[in-house]
Amino acid sequence: MPHDLPKSYEPGAIEARWAEYWIKEKLFHAPTPAEGDERPRFSLLLPPPNVTGRLHMGHMLNQTQMDVIIRWHRMRGDLTLWLPGTDHAGIATQMMVERQLATEGKKRQQMGREAFIERVWEWRRHYGGAILDQMKRLGASVDWDREYFTMDENLSRAVREAFVRLYEDGLIYRGKYIVNWCPRCETAISDLEVKHEDVPGKLYEIRYPVVGSDEFITVATTRPETMLGDTAVAVNERDERYKHLHGKKVLLPLMNREIPIILDDLAQPEFGTGAVKVTPAHDPNDFQAGLRHDLPQIDVMDEHAHMNENAGPYAGLERYEARERVLHDLREQGFLVGVKDYTIPIGKCDRCKTIVEPRLSTQWFIKIQPLAKRAIEVVEKGYVRFTPENYGQIYLNWMRNIYDWCISRQLWWGHRIPAWHCANCKEILVAREAPGKCTKCGSARLEQDTDVLDTWFSSGLLPFTSLGWPEATRDLEAFYPTSLLITGFDILFFWVARMIMLGCWFMSPPHKPGGEAAQTGDEALRDSVPFREVYIHALVRDADRQKMSKTKGNVLDPIEVIEKYGTDATRFTLAAMSSPGTDIAFNPSRTDGYRAFANKIWNAARFMFLNLDRVEAEAGERPSLADPDIADFQAVTLEDRWILSRFHRTAGVVGDALEAYRFDDAARAIYDFFWGEFCDWYIELIKPRLTPEAGGAALVACGNLAGLFEASLRLLHPVMPFITEEIWHAMYDGKPPLKSIALAAYPEADVEQFDLAAEAEMAILQDLIVSVRNLRAELKIENKLRVPIQVFTEDPAIRSLVEQNQGAVERLANVESITFVESTLAKLPGVRHTARFDVHVVYEQKIDVAAECARLRKELERVEKDIAGCRRQLGNEQFLAKAPADVVEGLRRRLPELEVLQEKTKSKLEELGCK
Ligand SMILES: [Zn+2]
Ligand SMILES: [Zn+2]
């Protein structure tokens, strides 16, 4: 039966077909391992894309790297799990639905919470699967049967459980935090909902008297009304101007309150006076400085941005009215020392365009130190390893300076905080399920907290909640800790760090489910980590190394790239450019090159099939092709021994490279082997052995070719899964021994098959053949012309090597005959010298007279046309008057040159006797 492979390689159809097949056959489903299943495990969590997301090049890179690694592990016999899912993405999704409502003239506040949330679910049912559908097209070998959504009921229950346990551990508390506040909408709004713009404004310089001296410190502000809430003035420790004031106090004008002078990096000597006012209740940076120095937080405004009782005589004034009054009074009392024009960055409410006010509000926090302590220890001890290594240090620096984590968000879409407020006695009850009545006063008037949890809280729990925590599931036991996390630097702190903190907390005693409580100390810590390794991938930039952005218009849509070049070529490009720590300048011309690589493989497969079918027909029996196996490879000739050795070496290089996440080295090794050695040399060398005259040798050659081809497909499969699957199935006439090449064994290097002698000998023959090819190109010898060569070598082994392989050299270098000469060819033209031999291409200028005449006539025609043009311009008075002097000068010089060329061409034509 003939092997079936269409004449031309069309990735689109092939890829869609296999992507669907893999899903339909559930090939990448990781069953819960049975007791006693001791296969090595390899598990990987897909960083869950936002449910609102669309695939971008960063995802494509991330998923290519994960898919290469997981396919490689699967082929090595590991029980592999790649767990997919989507994130509910609180704010992004809520805003998406609000925008949709706006087009219908509706607002979420009018709908009410319950109806709005129902609307979000509806949106999610319709549109939430888009990004995973795109992933399916990429052929990502994830376990689709385990797909989760972070708001699924079981995951939501786990989130409540985690919150309650942290609360019971004494790690959750309520406290003040600074948020963006819209005085018109009367709500806190997230950073994403604030639109920033620069507007012209004023910078006011105010001087504060130093207590116990006649000195002043001058500070500057664009919002002078906030000075009423100042609780310190900061200077920088290295600022010489203020050395003598360290430890002193200033008197806050208008309020007559003594506030300390503190030393903090908030104050930069290079800016203005180098001193800044600190208002912890009304500025996010000041808020952090306030925490560092334990300063009081004095809130001087209410929820409508009117001044409150803390603003003393200004209480009741609207904020901008208060500003005018404060300025007036400061000026009167001699504290206002300067007013400058200044560009002010302001933030406006995305919905109502009101200027937002930073404001203190009560929020939920996680006391982070106990979690951070473990998260530092596991990285210091190497229980979690980073690639590139420097990210480990970046992580540790951040973790050592971490603040408590504000986990509440004033949104409707998300995991609602499992806390209930008693309307009667104000008690707050934290519970897994809604309590019936207040535990303190017995009142049934309980209302659930209106806030939801930060999205990163639930995604930080995913490595274990996605496997069934808090239940002691077999999956949790089998696949946790996961083996690897591949993600980008942008979410190192948001997500990676949180997963480590929460994993180490919840997956060690007393929270770890199951009977492992016996595990203690270091052992417990080591196995509590969410993943053993983290690979931080680089950015995908455009071909000019510019960051891709919508405003620059240089964003590449991976789906468009795939449609043009195929997924395999796109994946190969990303792998080939993935060197740890180096950004990728994605140039589609490279993808075009890898499309050609895929084409080369396709054509090689077709060549192989053509020969297999013919040899099979001639021999009347099927060569060992029904079940090609590189283990049956018969190394009969030098090229056989050589390619087998090269194959095993390549398998070794690829394995080592993937072990170290050197995707680029792995891709290069496969490319060089498959195209550079297997297609360009081996297949060319064995061609005579495939001819009908070769007889029985053809069967052996076919067996070798098929065995090697099959093994090479397996080597390539993790990077180019589609084309390898297609050809592999064709090799078995559609009846392969396994459902997919993805389940076949990955080639391992067998050092027994390394053949140094064969590699050295092949290197000499290749050197000779390439030398002759280069000489032919330099001498412009026509392709069809065979030429004799002379070889000089002092090494009899080389001479006999060349003699033994004379036919191959003659064929591949287009050589008529080979003569060995006894002296060096150093002085002759057309010579290439190498350390081992010299080679001379014997070639006398033999030319095709007719073709040369035609070329010369064309040349003459062109020259004469140019001469006519020059003469016409130089004879045109008008032109000469107008044209720049150097142009005219150029024409004058050019004419005689053209005339000389005309003469030379004419005499050559005569010499050759052209008509
Ligand atoms: Zn607003
Ligand atoms: Zn109560």
Overview of this protein structure:
The chain is an alpha/beta fold. The protein has 28 helices and 29 strands. α7 crosses α12 (455-465), α10 (369-380) runs antiparallel to α11 and α26 (849-874) packs antiparallel against α28 (885-911). The longest helix is centred in the middle third of the chain and has 32 residues, at 588-619. The protein is globular and about 110 Å long. The two termini are 59 Å apart. The mean pLDDT is 90. The chain binds zinc ion (2 copies). One zinc ion binds at residues 422, 424-425, 427, 438, 440-441, 443.
Uncertain ranges: none
Globally, the shape reads globular
Instruction: Please give the number of β-strands.
Output: 29
What fraction of residues sit in β-strands? 15-25%
Largest sheet, order of strands side by side? Answer: 6-5-14-16
Note the main sheet: 4 strands, antiparallel
Features:
single chain, 915 residues, alpha/beta, 4-stranded antiparallel beta sheet, 4-stranded mixed beta sheet, 44% helix, globular
Show the helix and strand layout.
Blueprint: H1 11-24, E1 41-45, H2 57-75, E2 79-83, E3 85-86, H3 90-103, H4 108-111, H5 113-127, H6 130-138, E4 148-149, H7 153-168, E5 172-182, E6 187-189, E7 194-209, E8 216-221, E9 232-235, E10 249-252, E11 257-263, E12 275-278, H8 284-293, H9 319-332, E13 336-349, E14 357-366, H10 369-380, E15 385-387, H11 390-400, E16 405-406, E17 408-409, E18 419-422, E19 428-430, E20 446-448, E21 452-453, H12 455-465, H13 474-479, E22 482-488, H14 492-506, H15 521-526, E23 531-537, E24 540-541, H16 558-565, H17 567-576, E25 584-585, H18 588-619, H19 638-659, H20 663-686, H21 696-716, H22 721-731, H23 756-778, E26 787-792, H24 796-804, H25 806-813, E27 815-820, E28 831-833, E29 838-841, H26 849-874, H27 877-882, H28 885-911
Parallel strand pairs: 1-2, 3-4, 9-11, 15-23, 22-23, 24-25, 26-27
Antiparallel strand pairs: 5-6, 5-14, 7-8, 7-13, 9-12, 10-11, 14-16, 17-21, 18-19, 18-20, 26-29, 28-29
Helix pairs in contact: 1-22, 7-12, 10-11, 10-14, 12-14, 16-17, 17-18, 17-20, 18-20, 18-21, 19-20, 19-21, 19-23, 20-21, 21-22, 26-28
This protein binds zinc ion (2 copies).
The site of one zinc ion (ZN) has 8 residues, from loops.
